[in-house]
Specification:
There is one protein chain. The protein is α/β, with parallel strands linked by helices. The protein has an eight-stranded parallel β-sheet. About 3% of the residues have low confidence. The structure holds phosphoenolpyruvate (PEP) and manganese (II) ion. The site of phosphoenolpyruvate has 9 residues, from helix 5.
Length: 378
């Protein structure tokens, strides 16, 4: 069995640029907060992973929304990552957002760099980082210093823009360093249609799942991890903290190291699972895998639909309260007629954009929503 798998891997390598022979698991805290927190988290992750290999992550410079929150421990934290590397023998990863970050991280021997979702939304930033990485690689080669950078991880942009994410992959692959895409979703939601587009456009680029930023909730991590199998992803980047309730950033989404065992894949299963993944990916367009991706897209749209309907009912209730206060009846016939008229215009617009829905279908759905609205208002 193992020999068969090896043959498949070799065959596939021909068509795939950056082969990874097992799923990648990048585990560690959102931010490096102190030497003790970093080492304690790494120790417990290693204990929880057992034989399962992992890369340790920790943000040193944190792109935070507010300037009044923890911004990362800065350059000093690189030495804590170096300690993890020597003490536990695992590769380490951190986020870079400026030329100076790249220089400092590479000098410290960081194995993987990741580019965050905010930087990923800005092509000039990504190009600067790509140029800086390429320059470091060239300088090292000139001086006969081995290049130790093993990969660049590129998160999807904060906005759902598949073309921009692909453009970033292209900018980064010019460095010659293997590029790995990380799907972290947008606004704490997955964005499967964007990920699907990128996966189909670049099946040669490994894609990892970031269930932590995708959901913003530690409790959602295990169910999202199941997508690795159903969508044949190449692994995950998960935020793991020794004491999540005391975390200085992304507190709600970090899991404890011991939770890793919930989704831990036995090392012995790795190879056969990977081979199956490859077979499925080789038949990407025709296999059931395509159906799984389409189902992920449709589930996401359904969820948005329900959230929109629930938000609409909430506004409707507020309108009901206003009407009561001002002595106006819940049903206003002229408003009703106006909405039906606009619905017909919308139907025409959809038709012109190649998305035809029958007018009756739209009217039926609208009637049901309207009825529920009146019920909520009464
Ligand atoms: C992170 O991984 O800690 C991070 C900041 O991620 P993102 O850029 O996806 O928000
Ligand atoms: Mn984070």
């Amino acid at each position: 069995m193992i020999d068969d798998c090896k043959k498949i891997v070799q065959l596939f390598t021909v068509n795939r640029k950056y082969i990874i022979d097992q799923r990648l698991y990048i585990l560690g805290p959102c931010a490096a907060e102190s030497r003790e927190q970093v080492l304690e988290t790494a120790r417990r992750i290693q204990a929880a992973c057992g034989e399962m290999p992992f890369i340790f992550r920790a943000g040193v410079w944190k792109p935070r929304t507010s300037p009044y929150t923890f911004q990362g421990a800065g350059i000093e934290a690189l030495s804590w990552l170096q300690e993890v590397k020597t003490q536990f023998g695992v590769p380490v990863a951190t986020e870079v957002a400026t030329r100076e970050h790249v220089e400092a991280a590479l000098q410290a021997g960081i194995d993987y760099l990741w580019i965050g979702a905010r930087s990923s939304a800005t092509p000039i930033v990504v190009q600067t980082l790509a140029d800086s990485i390429a320059e470091q690689q060239r300088n090292n080669s000139k001086l006969n210093i081995p290049n130790t950078l093993k990969g660049i991880l590129i998160k999807n942009p904060v906005n759902a823009d598949a073309a921009l994410w692909i453009g970033n992959i292209e900018r980064l692959e010019k460095t010659g360093v293997p590029v790995i895409a990380v799907h972290r979703g947008c606004n704490h939601r997955p964005c499967w249609s964007m990920a699907h587009t990128v996966r189909n456009a670049r099946p040669d680029i490994p894609m990892l799942l970031d269930p932590s930023h995708m959901s913003g909730k530690a409790a959602k991590v295990p169910e999202l991890m199941e997508k690795i199998e159903t969508l044949a992803l190449d692994g995950a980047m998960v935020e793991v903290h020794c004491c999540p309730e005391q975390a200085l950033s992304d507190q709600k989404q970090q899991i404890t190291p011991e939770k890793i065992s919930d989704f831990r894949v036995q090392n012995s299963e790795f190879f056969s699972r990977f081979a199956r993944t490859i077979i499925r990916r080789a038949n990407f367009q025709s296999s059931e895998l395509e159906l799984n991706w389409l189902r992920a897209e449709i589930d996401e749209l359904d969820e948005e639909l329900w959230d929109t309907i629930a938000a609409r009912m909430d506004v409707s209730k507020r309108i009901g309260e206003w009407k009561k206060e001002h002595g106006i009846a819940p049903l206003q016939p002229e408003r009703y007629q106006q909405i039906v008229k606009e619905l017909k215009i919308k139907n025409e617009k959809l038709r012109m954009n190649g998305l035809p829905l029958s007018e009756q279908f739209m009217l039926n759905i609208w009637e049901m929503i309207h009825e529920e609205s009146l019920r909520q208002q009464s």
